[in-house]
Design brief:
By secondary structure, the chain is of the alpha/beta class. The protein is built from seven helices and 14 strands. Strands 3-2-4-1-5-6-7 form a seven-stranded parallel sheet, with helices on both faces. A five-stranded mixed barrel has the order 9-10-11-13-12. Helix 7 links the parallel strand 8 and strand 9.
Length: about 300
Amino acid sequence: MVRSYLINGFLEAGKTSFISRLFEEPAFNTGETTLVIQCEEGIEEYEEDFWKIRDIHFAKIEKEEDFNPEYITKLEKAIKPKRVIVEFNGMWIRKDKNFPWYWDDPIEIALIDARSFENYSKNMRSLVAEHVRTASMVVFNRADGIKDKLANFKRNIKAVNREINVVFEDDKGIIKDDMDYELPYDISEDYLKINEECYIPFYLDIMENVDKYLGKEVEFTAMVIKAKEDEKMMVIGRLAMTCCMDDLSTFAFITDFDDAPGLKVSDWIRIRAKVEKDYAPKFDLHFPVFHVEEFNKVEAPEYPIIENV
C-alpha cells in the first residue's frame, strides 16, 4: 500500500509552503521515497537544494482529464514511492477524482487564505465546500488582524464537515491556540432562546461542548424529522444549505417527551426543553438530548431552509 496525502486549496492558498514545512518536521521527514504530484503552477517553487538531499521526486499533471488512476500509476512506475503527496488544483472537483486502488485512503488537508475566504465563500461557495467536505483538517493561514471573523469562518466550515479539525495560523505560520469563538447568544444564561440566526452556531457548539449546556433550558423551532405516534423519543431539526440548494444538510437533535406527543414527520413545533446528555459507546461520544417540557405545533417558517450558516 502507498500512503497518500491530498493538499487542496485555491491558487496562492499556501499549498507549496505547507508541503515544504511538512518535510521540515522530523516525524514526517523519515527518508521514505516520496512522489509529489503538482496539479497547478503556483507562485512559490520548491527549492532545489532542499529536495535533492532527500529521496523526493516531482511529477506534474496539468490537464484535469489526466488525473486518473491509470495516468497516476504510470507516473509512479519509474519511482516506486512509498508515499505520494498530491498538490491538488483547487479549481478541480474533488469528488469526481479517483485514485489508484492500492493507495491508502488519502489524508486530506485543505489550505485557505483567511484574507480571501469571505470572497471565495461568497462567489465560489460550492468549490470551497468541495475542498473541505472529505478533508480531515483545514488550515486557515494569514489569519492575523481578522480575529473577530474567525468564529464565523469555523462555523461555515463545520456546517459542511462537522468532523473536520479547524486550525488558524498567523503570517509566520505559528498555530494560534488562544482564539475565543464568540457565540451569537449569552452562554452564561440559564435560559437560551435560539432564533434562526443562532440555530447553526448553537447546534455546532452544543454537539462539541455538551457539558456546558447541561441543565439549561432552551427554546427553538424545528421540524419533526423522525417520529412514531406511539413513542416519546423523536428527532427534530432544521435543514441548512451548506453550498447550494442541491446540497442540503440536516442539523437534528434527539428529543424526549413525557408522553407520546402524536406528532408526525414534517410537523413544525416550538419546544421548550431542558438539556440532558446520553452516551453512544460505539462512537465513544456524548451527545445532547432535549427533555421537552412544553411544545406547540406551529406553521412552517416563511423560509424553512436556513441559508446563512
